[in-house]
Write a structure and sequence with these properties.
7-stranded mixed sheet, alpha/beta, 13 helices, Rossmann fold, Leu-bd, signal, 408 residues, Branched-chain amino acid ABC transporter substrate-binding protein, Peripla_BP_I
């Protein structure tokens, strides 16, 4: 199934439905004002069930809103967009299966997602082999774009099809360390990670920068992200004199970890990255007050560029847009813009080799999005390196400091 390269284009006619394959001929003389539309499907992948579903559902809704907006505004003349969402349950094996489903559906011209870097690792090569564009609003694992040698300065693009609107763990970990050391004046940290691609990478980046600034890592531990009993590690932290705990992982484990730290007598703040900075974190944690988090981009609710998006989102959905709403809208819109470029360069029609042409168009994509200027560098990384530090105040995340951070 993964070797099927033809793109089926479904054109809705007033007299019925006509399916065109890459081997078929397109009616070049059709009346463009007749209302005929070519259906283009954008795939979407994230956890829509399970512990991380709050983040995934906010992402899905935001992608759907971008598709609805493009159709309503006729952003690409002659094209009707459709979203196909799949649930990966935050499991790499399921993500790999979903990748094959998208590849075998010849209407799919690009895929938005996933949430988890570990899931993305199971999808990248199949998408690359199929020339199917993938763009994630949440994957921050630096190696996904720059390879394992990035730490030594040996950066090599891994997959021509992978892009992201979220910046890297290298940027986020460094920013968190700098904020904690320089702004929060914390010099001693206990380091914990969940051993997953995202969490371990984030913790490693934090450690390198924190120690280079003069900070001290007084202890280090790993936990199982499926566990909810962290009393053992909490007791270790208590005896080490840590002024804070940095956690590389996600909110389902971060919330009980934070609460049990305080209940054990280690009354110090927990800090984590965008996977922890969810509205669910303070809901699941009775001791969240004073904890820190970082997230990619500036706070969406504070951006003039996001006002319309927020208004339309709140009109259409009851679920919170969560951490990645704005970035997901922009990721979806990047594919829409790539389709527009491909159509414009092909006399107003989607090319038969649509996947390849859309992929080629991604390097030309540049627009002012919900989260700011959207474009991609030679690795497929976002050129927007804005980061924000947050603190839990009155049971809600409150932005404290934003900066367009450049890696050290």
């Amino acid at each position: 199934m993964r070797n099927r390269s033809a793109l089926i284009l479904t054109t809705v006619l007033t007299t019925g439905a006509l399916t065109l394959t890459a081997c078929g001929s397109r009616d070049k003389d059709k009346d463009k004002d007749s209302g005929d539309k070519t259906t283009v499907t954008i795939g979407f992948d994230a956890p829509l069930t399970g512990d991380l579903s709050a983040l995934g559902i906010g992402m899905r809704n935001s992608a759907e809103l971008a598709v609805k907006t493009a159709n309503k505004e006729n952003t690409v003349d002659g094209v009707e967009f459709k979203l196909e969402p799949l649930d990966d349950q935050a499991q790499p094996s399921v993500g790999g299966q979903n990748a094959q489903k998208f590849i075998s559906n010849e209407d799919v011209i690009g895929v938005v997602g996933p949430l988890n870097s570990s899931v993305s690792q199971s999808m990248q090569k199949p998408f690359n082999d199929a020339s199917l564009t993938q763009i994630s609003p949440a994957n921050t694992g630096t190696e996904l774009t720059q390879g394992d040698g990035w730490k030594k300065g040996d950066k090599k693009r891994q997959f021509k099809t992978f892009f992201r609107t979220a910046t890297t763990d290298q940027v986020q970990g460094q920013f968190a360390a700098q904020y904690l050391f320089q702004k929060a004046k914390i010099k001693k940290v206990y380091l914990i990670d969940d051993q997953k691609t995202y969490g371990a990478g984030l913790a490693a980046s934090f450690k390198d920068t924190f120690t280079s600034l003069g900070g001290k890592i007084v202890g280090q531990d790993h936990v199982n992200p499926e566990d909810r009993d962290f009393k053992s590690v909490a007791s270790k932290v208590k005896g080490k004199g840590a002024q804070a705990v940095y956690y590389g992982g996600e909110y389902p484990a971060a919330a009980p970890l934070s609460q049990q730290l305080k209940e054990s007598g280690a009354d110090v703040p927990l800090m984590g990255g965008d996977g922890m900075k969810s509205d669910e974190f303070p809901k699941l944690n009775k001791k969240a007050e004073g904890d820190f988090g970082t997230s990619v981009g500036a706070p969406v609710e504070e951006l003039p560029s996001a006002k319309k998006f927020i208004s339309e989102y709140n009109k259409n959905y009851k679920e919170n847009m969560e951490t990645y709403g704005g970035g997901t809208y922009d990721a979806t819109w990047a594919i829409i813009e790539a389709v527009k470029i491909a159509v414009d360069e092909n006399d107003g029609e989607l090319p038969d080799d649509g996947r390849e042409k859309v992929l080629a168009s991604m390097s030309k994509v540049k627009f002012d999005g919900v989260t700011g200027s959207v474009s991609f560098d030679e690795y497929g990384d976002t050129t927007n390196t804005m980061m924000t530090a947050y603190e839990v105040k009155n049971n809600k995340w409150e932005s404290k400091f934003s900066e367009a951070y450049k890696p050290r």
